[in-house]
């Protein structure tokens, strides 16, 4: 059973590293702040969550419940999207330019129409 859990943890770490790599590539390739904010937040949430769940499986295989890893995973899954949303709202408030066209509602909120 221990070998099965460790192999599953290794697969989770590989999947998590793929998501983290995709997020890093998105951070480098996207054009403006808003696009660059989107890629790493989504990918890092999945990447860090995968690594922590893999850690929880390994500690479970060795007889210790992974309560700390579970709490950290829940914390990351809650705080990463909230912080990304707040940064995007702050950027809109500071009128950080975007290369993408803004929808009409956002233009009205910014006083553009």
Question: Could you characterize the architecture of this molecule?
Answer:
The chain has one domain (2-109). It is 80% helix and 0% strand. It has helices spanning 2-29, 33-61, 67-93, 104-109. The longest helix is centred in the middle third of the chain and has 29 residues, at 33-61. The termini are far apart.
Shape assignment: elongated
Poorly predicted regions: none
Overall average residue pLDDT: 85
What's the number of structural domains? 1
Structural class: mainly alpha
- Calculate the terminal CA-CA distance, rounded to whole Å: 64 Å
What percentage of amino acids are in beta strands? under 5%
The largest β sheet comes out as: none
Helix content: over 70%
Radius of gyration: 19 Å
- What is the number of strand segments? 0
Query: H/E order of the elements?
Result: HHHH
Write the layout of secondary structure elements.
Blueprint: H1 2-29, H2 33-61, H3 67-93, H4 104-109
Keywords summarizing the entry:
4 helices; 113 residues; mainly alpha
In short:
By secondary structure, the protein is mostly helical. 80% of the residues lie in helices and 0% in strands. It has 4 helices and no strands.
